[in-house]
Design a protein that fits this description.
This protein is mainly α. It is about 55% helix and about 0% strand. The protein has seven helices and no strands.
Length: about 130
C-alpha cells in the first residue's frame, strides 16, 4: 500500500510539473512576424475606437476589461492568461504581439477569419498597447 501511495504521489508531482511547463512554454514566433512593424498610427483615435470595439467583442471575455487576464472565461481554460499590461508583454515586438493575438496556439484561438482586416488587427494591438 505504501508503494502505491508513493507512486501516486510521484505521478501527481510529475503531472503538475509537466502541466506548468506546457502552460508557460515560450511562443515560437516565426521570423516573418518578428520583423513586422505596426503600420498604423498608435494615437489615431478612430483606430483606437475600432480596436476597442473588436477587443470588447473578441478578447474581453478572457483577457478582461483592462487586459489583466481576469475575464469571465479566463478560469475555464488551462493556459495561464497573460497580463497585457505587464512590462514583459509591452516589451514584445509588434509582430510578436500580432502573431500571438491573431494566429494563436493552444487555448488562444486563431482570429484571422473573425478579424479579416489587417488594419483592424493592428488597431486591436494599438488598443491593447494603450492599457
Amino acid at each position: 500500500m505504501k508503494k502505491i501511495l508513493v507512486l501516486l504521489f510521484t505521478a501527481g508531482i510529475f503531472v503538475l510539473v509537466v502541466s506548468f511547463d506546457v502552460q508557460n512554454d515560450p511562443w515560437d514566433i516565426p521570423e516573418k512576424y518578428l520583423k513586422m512593424e505596426n503600420p498604423t498610427d498608435a494615437d489615431d483615435g478612430d483606430c483606437l475606437d475600432v480596436g476597442k470595439s473588436l477587443y470588447v467583442r473578441h478578447c474581453k471575455s478572457c483577457h478582461g476589461s483592462e487586459g489583466f487576464g481576469d475575464g469571465k472565461k479566463a478560469g475555464e481554460i488551462e493556459t495561464e492568461m497573460p497580463d497585457l499590461t505587464s512590462d514583459d508583454y509591452k516589451a514584445q515586438k509588434p509582430g510578436a504581439k500580432y502573431y500571438q493575438s491573431f494566429i494563436g496556439r493552444d487555448d488562444m484561438p486563431n482570429f484571422e477569419k473573425k478579424i479579416q482586416s489587417e488594419e483592424d488587427r493592428w488597431c486591436v494591438i494599438n488598443y491593447i498597447n494603450s492599457f
